[in-house]
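Hi all, posting the design record for the shared folder.

TITLE: backbone redesign
STEP: 1 of 1
STRUCTURE INPUT:
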């Protein structure tokens, strides 16, 4: 019997009607002879509600206790999903991250999965004809503290289960019907993709495309899990995330993304010395902060250097305190914090063998009146730091410049 993992996001389980619809999909797959694992997120905006409640109690909630609180959202969802599947006439058992021993490190709020130790328990339930419902987004550390995987972490739970249990496919159900060339809420002409390579999707997810958690794509790539992103509200085919093919390489730019909620921390005018950058980013790594872009400028006239880096705005409180400590310890004369930056990017594995992409992107931004503050490149990505209030205009401009609304001949 084939095994399918179905993941339903918050919008797909936002109310009783939608939970019944999701339960119907899972039950239909079970009746078709498949073994079925369902992973669910918290209902609708429940996670945001819980975060807001925590901040009503204290402006700086303990990360451990915040994880303990946020994990309750998924526990509600799995129980309700099990009840809905029972109502649909199938057997089901709900399990928390702790009950399947999904073990993580102790990075509260952004934990990484180490193993799923209770795979045998899941297999026994599947063999007995049960639909197994697992709480996404959560796990436990080596001392059984509840941990969470970060925003979108239910995707990573689903892919990890698919990898651990050698599932035939991992279906990600969401409120859109696939992966688009850009966010269709910003670019109405954005086009749905039939397929996208793991590397392209990984970059788009990391660069602000909100359809999937970037770590889930990394896992899928490492274990060759076939991921199918599709709508909870229709039966139309979605977008498959797969290994790249030669035909895919003919498409120079696959998509464009906008990362809006960034902040830039600048450590200014420290004496130039070997190992300064290493010391800065070792401390940042120890704090568990995820850095996006890094810029270092050496001022030869006075022998000082500036180091800037961008992070998620959500991490600004912790980063601010750490920057102040680094300034004192390493001799920076000042710290500047800019919370009004964004990053617009284009992604495509075809960039490896095509030239002129950067020139076309910069020209499009110039014509749109968007000032570029920093540029970063990799083999398949070009990204530009810009003002946050220019973000949507910039995304529309580069989408138009590359003609991403048109289906390329290579994709036919």
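Okay, here is what came back for every position:
SEQUENCE:
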């Amino acid at each position: 019997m084939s095994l399918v993992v179905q993941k339903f996001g918050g919008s797909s389980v936002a109310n009783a009607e939608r939970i019944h619809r999701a339960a119907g999909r899972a039950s239909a797959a079970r009746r078709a002879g498949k073994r079925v694992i369902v992973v669910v997120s918290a209902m609708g905006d429940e996670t945001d509600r819980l975060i807001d409640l925590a901040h009503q109690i204290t402006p700086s909630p303990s990360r451990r206790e915040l994880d303990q609180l946020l994990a309750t959202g998924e526990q509600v969802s799995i129980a309700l999903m099990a009840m809905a599947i029972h109502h649909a006439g199938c057997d089901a058992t709900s399990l928390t991250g702790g009950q399947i021993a999904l073990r993580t490190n102790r990075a509260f709020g952004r934990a990484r999965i180490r193993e799923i130790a209770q795979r045998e328990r899941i297999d026994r339930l599947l063999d007995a004809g049960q639909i197994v419902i697992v709480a996404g987004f959560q796990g436990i550390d080596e001392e059984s503290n509840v941990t969470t995987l970060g925003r979108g972490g239910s995707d990573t739970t689903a892919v990890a289960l698919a990898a651990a249990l050698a599932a035939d496919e991992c279906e990600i159900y969401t409120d859109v019907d696939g992966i688009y060339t850009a966010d269709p809420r910003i670019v109405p002409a954005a086009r749905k993709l039939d397929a996208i390579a793991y590397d392209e999707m990984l970059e788009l997810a990391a660069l602000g495309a909100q359809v999937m958690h970037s770590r889930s794509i990394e896992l899928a790539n490492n274990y060759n899990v076939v991921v199918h992103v599709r709508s909870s509200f229709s039966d139309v085919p979605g977008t498959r995330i797969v290994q790249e093919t030669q035909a895919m390489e003919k498409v120079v730019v696959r998509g464009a993304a906008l990362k809006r909620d960034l902040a830039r921390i600048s450590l200014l005018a420290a004496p130039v010395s070997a190992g300064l950058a290493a010391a800065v980013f070792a401390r940042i790594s120890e704090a568990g902060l995820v850095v996006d872009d890094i810029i270092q400028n050496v001022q030869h006239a006075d022998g000082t250097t500036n180091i800037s880096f961008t992070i998620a705005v959500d991490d600004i409180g912790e980063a601010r305190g750490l920057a102040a400590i680094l300034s004192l310890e390493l001799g920076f004369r000042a710290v500047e914090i800019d919370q009004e930056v964004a990053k617009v990017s284009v992604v495509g594995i075809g960039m490896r063998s095509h030239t002129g992409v950067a020139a076309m992107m910069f020209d499009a931004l110039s014509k749109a009146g968007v000032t570029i503050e920093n540029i970063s490149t990799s083999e398949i990505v070009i990204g530009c730091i810009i003002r946050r209030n220019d973000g949507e205009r910039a995304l529309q401009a580069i989408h138009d410049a590359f003609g991403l609304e048109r289906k390329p001949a290579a994709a036919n």
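COMMENT: The chain is about 35% helix and 25% strand.
Let me know if anyone wants the other runs.
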